[in-house]
Amino acid sequence: MTNKKATISLPETDANIELSIYSGTMGPDVVDVGSLTGHGLFTYDPGFVSTASCESQITYIDGDKGILLHRGYPIDQLAESSNYLETCYLLLYGELPTHEQYEQFVSVIQNHTMVHEQIRTFFNGFRRDAHPMAVMCGVVGALSAFYHDSLDISNERHREIAAYRLVAKIPTIAAMCYKFSVGQPFMYPDNQLSYSENFLHMMFGTPCEPSKISPTLAKAMDRIFLLHADHEQNASTSTVRLAGSSGANPFACIAAGIVALWGPSHGGANEAVLEMLQEIGDVSRIDEYVARAKDKEDPFRLMGFGHRVYKNFDPRAKVMKESADEVLQELGKENDPLLAIAKRLEEIALEDDYFISKKLYPNVDFYSGIILKAIGIPTSMFTVIFAVGRTVGWIAHWNEMISGNYRIGRPRQLYTGQAQRDFVPMKKRS
Ligand code: SDX
Q: Is 70 a catalytic residue?
């Protein structure tokens, strides 16, 4: 850390407060404000727009340049040349695996894909028409009941086993959420298949016949998982870190991340994008919806547009758009009307002063739904798919925190409620 300093001069006193400034490998410097409480001050930053909550070495984002690096490797290079499990290894261990390390990692994940048979009974407590994300929250949270006693979070090996179990089992549980919703039998994992082939097998296979997995769809699924793997200190990752900072079981922390991801402002946006495109229905109605998105009196927003960090294009959206073209072409669906609406909507929005001035570009969720729909994933499962891809990022951040020096996260507030006052007995109240 450097020895640069910032100074705050306080009104009404001559006090000057010196604060240390730290520089990272890349990105903005940070001001250490920890000593402000000693001067009777808090920082105030609702939504954490200007707050660095931690130090991390996992993912770097430059919102102005549209840069996304995982352990230093650009997302477009990983999407082009790597695969999801190799990227999982990179996020968890910090380096790309050798061939032997990769083979070993794949084997361990493949041999942890089954869930305890009792897990199947959890599903029976839900209605068949429950949203799959609601079921996912419940079942992943329940995993902590199965591993609570065998997990010492201060033990590196225990944390590694928890990481393997979560990366390996989350697709199995996700597919179970889908099968439960359509009244079909759960499919056991097939360890002869790759991670994404296995997921499609568990989603669309039936006990009545052998699964026929399209390599095109498996490749598209793998790319979707890879592009969702991690994204710095987003809302759900910050939730996992905050839950983990109390020493909670990692399975419970991941369930907390799933809950935070569900919101339409975050991971729930991919489902909302598809619903929006279907509601627009035709390119002739795009202008009407763009006008609504610009109208301050209308709560409607263009789903899949805008980002807290990216004020230029989201590099994942760029790769996702290319993948959408490839997948639809290979499936003979290149004339998909929703893709036509999405592309025209992007063109119109990016020429509109409102979106240009507010730096609103398509984000990761704008095109992902089109690919998921082409693969045959129902819209209600889109955020579940996001959660499957992101679990490795959540667990990598949880592990980075727990393996280092951390304290329980406990923000303060600007209190604007009532000053102290005395209790009034009921009979004296008017
Ligand atoms: C993800 O953080 C991450 O990294 C998240 C994520 C990840 O990988 O983890 O990248 C995944 O969550 C992507 C974002 C998915 N959400 C959506 O697509 C929902 C639609 N977008 C927005 O609701 C919004 O853009 C957010 C939530 C993404 C960002 O919100 P911010 O940073 O708090 O920005 P804001 O709401 O303050 O908006 C700034 C201005 C506002 O106008 P003014 O008040 O300044 O006049 O831009 C406007 C907003 O009204 N605006 C939009 C808009 N998004 C922002 N107007 C119309 N349509 C939109 N989509």
A: no
Which of the following is catalytic: 131, 228, 365, 397? Answer: 365
Average pLDDT, the chain: 94
Between the CA of 309 and the centroid of ligand 1 the distance, in Å, is: 9
Q: What number is the average pLDDT over the span 16-35?
A: 96
Residue nearest to atom 40 of ligand 1 (CA): 358
Helix axes 382-402, 132-147, angle to 10 degrees: 30
Residues with CB under 6 A from ligand 1: 47, 231, 234, 265-267, 269, 293, 301-309, 358, 360, 363-365
Q: How far apart are alpha carbons 430 and 427 in whole angstroms? A: 8
Question: Taking a C-beta distance cutoff of 8 angstroms, is the pair 233, 240 a contact?
Answer: no
DSSP code of residue 265: T
Considering only CA atoms, which of 132, 139, 99 is closest in space to residue 115? 139
The answer, yes or no, to whether residue 3 has pLDDT greater than 80, is no
Judged on CB neighbours under 10 Å (0-12, 13-18, 19+), 26 is exposed
Active site annotation includes 201 = no
Q: Give the tens place of pLDDT for each residue, 185-232.
A: 999 999 999 999 999 999 999 999 999 999 999 999 999 999 999 999
pLDDT for the residue numbered 419: 97
Sheet (strand 30-31) strand order: 4-9, 16-22, 30-31
Assessment of whether the complete model's pTM goes beyond 0.70? yes
Catalytic residue among 266, 325, 336, 352: 266
> How many angstroms from the chain centroid is the CA of residue 292?
27
CA-closest residue to ligand 1 atom 57? 301
Choice among 70, 112, 228, 307 that is catalytic? 307
- Catalytic, 190? Answer no
Residue 1: per-residue pLDDT = 55
| Alpha-carbon separation of residue 235 from 151, 168, 232 (angstroms) | 26, 23, 9
pLDDT at 149: 63
Among left, alpha and beta (phi > 0; psi -120 to 50; other), residue 183 is left
Per-residue pLDDT, averaged over 270-276, amounts to: 92
Determine the atom of ligand 1 nearest the C-alpha atom of 234.
Answer: 2
- Residue that has been written with the tokens 């999982």 in this structure: 88
How far away, in angstroms, is 21 Cα from ligand 1 center? 29
